[in-house]
Amino acid sequence: MGCALRNTCLERPTKRRTFFCLAPIALLLFLAACGTPAPSAHPLSQADLTPTDTTSSTGGTAKTQIAPIKLLAAQSQLSGFPGGQMHMVVVTSPYALCVFTVSYGSGLSSANIGIVPHTADAQGMADWTWVIDKSAHTGSWPLKITASLPAGARMTTTIQVTVIFPPITLLSTQTVLRAYPGQNMALAITTAPGVLCVMTLNSGPGIPIKYLKSVSDTNGLAAWNWHIGTHALAGSWPLVILVTLADGEQNSIQTSMTVM
User: Mean pLDDT, consecutive 10-residue segments, the chain of 260 residues?
Assistant: First the structure.
């Protein structure tokens, strides 16, 4: 009996030590489980902090594309003489920067008055009025138009312009071509500005031919006044006006004067 009691007393402490050794481990596991937050339904990531760019670069956008250049022929005047003017209206993308070049057959691009870059308006319209070079050759010549947007898109087209020889028009209100010997005659014409005009007078057999020079003013006006000699022969005599352009091209008209 006594031995049995002693064995019982020895076994009890062993069970207590096992209990107290496992208890701290269980407590730590419980606290760890309680301190871990539940996963968020929408976890925050770097993508949530950075705004998303919704513009696609594939194929470009409306801001990077440019409309074709269209000439408004009804509002344009693309024919003129040296020293005269041309006018052009085109349509392309709004606010496109538009420039043009033309050489009139000389090989050098003109830099005359009015040939400057223009920015299209909100409807895409751009227009120019410019002065044709005095040295321009007559004929049909290419004019190249380029439109570009800030993003780099560019469009180019080529049209034809025509340089004609300036008309030579007699101004009847400033012209007197009938006179008696000893009186004066007068003649006035309009043509291109700043060109050489030579009038040839032939007053009949035995009378020397006269050459009277004039240079047309900025409006293309050239005028002459001359005296009919007392020995001039009565009759109708030819009178020729020759106009020479800066590049050497020439044209003329003929009329007549009457000595009474």
Answer: 40 45 46 45 30 28 82 97 96 98 93 96 98 95 97 96 96 96 96 96 87 96 94 93 96 96
Secondary structure element (H or E) that encloses residue 30, with its range: helix 2-35
User: Does the predicted TM-score (pTM) go above 0.85?
Assistant: no
CA distance 153 to 66: 6
Q: How many CA atoms lie within 13 A of 146 on its CB side?
A: 11
Is 46 inside a domain boundary?
A: no
Phi, psi of 75 (to 5 degrees): -105, 10
Instruction: Give me the domain span that covers residue 225.
Output: 169-259
How much is the mean pLDDT over the chain?
82
Residues 52, 23: Cα–Cα separation, whole Å: 53
What total number of domains does the chain contain? 2
Q: Domain for residue 223, yes or no?
A: yes
| pLDDT (tens digit per residue) in 31-87 | 444 444 444 433 323 333 222 222 222 234 555 799 999 999 999 999 999 999 999
pLDDT at residue 142, rounded to an integer: 97
With a CB cutoff of 8 Å and minimum separation 6, the contacts of 176 are 184, 185, 186, 187
- Asked if 93 and 158 sit in the same domain, the reply is yes
Domain boundary among 125, 148, 163: 163
E strand or H helix at 14: helix 2-35
